[in-house]
Amino acid sequence: MSTAEQLSSTRAEPATYADLEAVHPHLVAEIIDGELVTHPRPVPRHSAAASALGMEIGDAFQRGRSGPGGWIFLDEPELHLGSDVVVPDLAGWRKERLPSFDKAFIETAPDWVCEILSPSTERYDRGAKRRIYAEAGVKYMWLLDPRAEFIETFILADGQWRVGPTFDNDTAVSAEPFEAISFPLTILWPLNPAADTDTQNAQ
Description:
Strand content: 25-35%
Oligomer: single chain
Number of strands: 10
Structural class: alpha+beta
GO molecular function: endonuclease activity
Keywords: Endonuclease, Hydrolase, Nuclease
Protein name: Uma2 family endonuclease
Domain Putative restriction endonuclease: 16-182
Number of domains: 2
Largest sheet: 6 strands, mixed
Helix content: 25-40%
Mean pLDDT: 90
Organism: Jiella mangrovi
């Protein structure tokens, strides 16, 4: 257990932003329900999947080259949503809702978030963070699991998450809010030795 985690488990008062700033930069730090939560930086397979997804949807929805554009995406932005400080792996805002970028953190809830599941984060991603995103009004959430190689999608309706489509390596991904494009899930596993073969077979 890290020093920050030991501190959060023994203190009675909620964690502060000063506590978060004191965490070693090699760790990702969040304040969730008043608790200081830390976890390691992503492993390469995790980072590669996040980067591949960001490039695929960014080409279509930020640069507008293979899709309609109209979005801005950030990797691991620090979001201040009420008293919670959370760091999604990917987040996107429609351009008409662009947040202020004059601070080190963002207080405007994204329109879409994606969490890349890992053993150290899955409990929070599926639990407290999913609730925090719903309370903040985030409309779309994706959970990407590089270990099991699938994506789960969720849509906010009346303050509750409604389960959307789930995609595996045999199903082309096309889901709100990015249903204007589709792509094979296998492109999100560039470190998989079979990825090059799959790409060649698709050509």
